[in-house]
Amino acid sequence: MHNIGLILLCLGLGWLCQRLPRVPANSWIALNTYVIYVALPATIVFYLPQIQLSWALFTPFAIGLWVFLGAILFAEVIGRWLGWDRGLRGCVAICCGFGNTSFVGFPLVEAWYGSQALQTAVLVDQGTFLVLSTLGIGAAGWYGGQQAPRWREVWQRMAVFPPFWAFVGALMLMTTSVTLPDWGKALCERLSLTLSPVALFSVGLQLRFALDKTARWPLSLGLLYKLVLMPAILYALWGRQMVEQQQTLQICLIEAAMAPMVSASLIAVEHQLKPTLANLYVGIGIPLSLLSVAAWVWWLG
Question: Which CATH architecture has domain 26-300?
Fold first, then answer.
């Protein structure tokens, strides 16, 4: 339970620090930079090489694609039925199609399943990032009425994203005889320990609870899909398989049930897809996901 206490403490401290006059309004940017450039790559390099390569890894890696395609289908069916315009449907699809699999997902998975579970969580996160960097950006451009980015632009975005290169390096360690020296493993392990508290404190600095009445239905339905409906579909599909690969599939389901991703929200804002609603998905979704994820963990036993 001390991990759950750490989650609540770091989120609460971040939220309280928003109100301190000496804390800059955009201080979370510096913390996010540290997480993306240092802590997250170290976590990937430390945990991923410990995994044994097998076809069972395909499921964690593909979860991000399933969640995104489900969000597109959900937004189009519900949105057209309720008369939403293309921009609103795009906001729901982009924001609810990608879970906060690292900043919030890693701490929660570690709290409920232990540090070894991060091996599976890292695969889910990298698969989600790959889908966001390709299909997600292309879909955002289409929904925003702009030309979808070319493949060259997609690769340029990936080339400057440090966790991607950490993932490539970790795959090389998994598939070759090369290993990190002991001091390198120790360094990565120490840096990975900073990921959860710093990421959660950063999320706390960004939490906003102001609710726009015009966004009530899109917000409620989008979070219903992300936090409840999608994990329920996975639970129904996997059924008996959860007994055979219990922890791996449970972690996949928990990661699929995470709140909307901050980066996906920023992409929606960048493409003018209902910016106010996009920010609400993060500000309201993250606190709600703490309760919904706990409920899913309890349900899974």
Answer: Up-down Bundle (1.20)
